[in-house]
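> forwarded from #structure-qc
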């Protein structure tokens, strides 16, 4: 891993972490529920792929056995694309939090005062926060030339996304009914 890739990855990770921390402090979360044990397990798995493995990789040599080298031109291309993807992830994460305002919750739970947000970035996609996480996972894959740490977020995020999004959409249909149904017909999930 080049110093440039390590620096870009570290800055990107700090940016997305700062965005999430800012909004978590600004919008205090209710006390965590006992929650769904499957979802809690999938969230831990995601944490492993998005934080633990990449931080282990960039701060030690424990995963160096799984490194790979790309020709210089491909390293430049992946570094540029990874930087753009991380920038897009930070922007989408910020925009989705800002547009959701008090409606954001880290856990999937009913909120009596919840409103349907269809403006801002939510006018373009129904799940920009998940789109941000996909971009982050792609950036990590492009910036970390390691067969374990690089794709670990892609691999660990997929099960959570597949499990959680249908449940969120079902909750939105229950809460907002035809308004959400009409919104979902006009606006795609991620694109």
């Amino acid at each position: 891993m080049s110093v440039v890739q390590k620096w870009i990855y570290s800055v990107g990770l700090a940016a997305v972490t700062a965005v999430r921390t800012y909004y978590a402090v600004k919008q205090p979360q209710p006390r965590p529920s006992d929650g769904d044990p499957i979802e809690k397990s999938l969230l831990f798995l995601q944490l492993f792929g998005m934080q633990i493995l990449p931080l282990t990789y960039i701060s030690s040599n424990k995963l160096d056995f799984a490194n790979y080298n790309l020709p210089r031109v491909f390293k430049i291309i992946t570094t540029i694309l990874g930087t753009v993807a991380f920038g897009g992830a930070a922007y989408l994460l910020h925009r989705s939090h800002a547009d959701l305002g008090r409606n954001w919750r880290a856990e999937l739970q009913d909120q009596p005062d919840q409103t349907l947000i269809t403006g801002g970035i939510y006018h373009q996609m129904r799940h920009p926060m998940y789109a941000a996480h996909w971009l982050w996972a792609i950036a990590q894959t492009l910036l970390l030339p390691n067969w374990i740490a690089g794709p670990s977020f892609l691999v660990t995020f997929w099960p959570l996304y597949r499990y959680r999004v249908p449940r969120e959409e079902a909750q939105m249909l229950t809460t907002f009914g035809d308004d959400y149904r009409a919104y979902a017909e006009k606006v795609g999930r991620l694109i």
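QC bot note: The mean pLDDT is 90. The domain at 3-25+52-186 is CATH 1.20.120.1630 (Four Helix Bundle (Hemerythrin (Met), subunit A)).
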